[in-house]
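Sequence only, no structure available. Ideas?
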Amino acid sequence: MNSALRLSIIITSSALIFNFIFSILLYFSNNNKNSILKKTIEFFITIPIFLPPSVIGYILIIFLGRNSFVGQFFNKAFNFKFLFTVQGAIIAAIIVSLPIIYQTIKVSFDSIDKAYIETALCLGVSKFNMLRHIYLPLSYSKILSGFILGIGRAFGEFGATILIAGNIPGKTQTLPLALYSAIESGDYLLANKILLILLTFSGLFLGVYIFFSKKES
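Reply:
I predicted one. Tokens follow.
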């Protein structure tokens, strides 16, 4: 159970860091919001919201499996595998939580008064300094609220993870997978302990979300 908790935290943290950086880069990548390329990327980022987790897992197997082009390339070039590894679990967590993180950042940044942005542009302020001194300070509570939802989604991921990463204790088994294994094996004492941990984390996530949502309003 301890290893499952540790893995859940590592996977969720890794997904959160990647999604934050990727979302920021994508938002600032093209000043033309109607760019076809950007709209296409946003479409593929958002579509996992409407897909069952098992479908996402199967798609990841198709594109990252040992017989896929990407899977073979990474295996031969870097001896790097996605199937039945923690890397695969991280990819699954990234895919399911990225829509929430990116849309939160996009909506938060778009809601900032354009007068601040135009003034900064006239003064020649770089995008990085605009991010530090305008975008993040003026929208941090909204972003944190969205991040909590993304964290909750990644932390509780099950369907996509079990398909691409498997359910290997000490290697790819997260808390939701450990709960599944405990129930399947009839170890209800362990299942109840894991359930309590998951409920505790869920309560914490919800409490933080409500806190920042109130600050936002």
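The chain has ten helices and no strands.
Hope that gets you unstuck.
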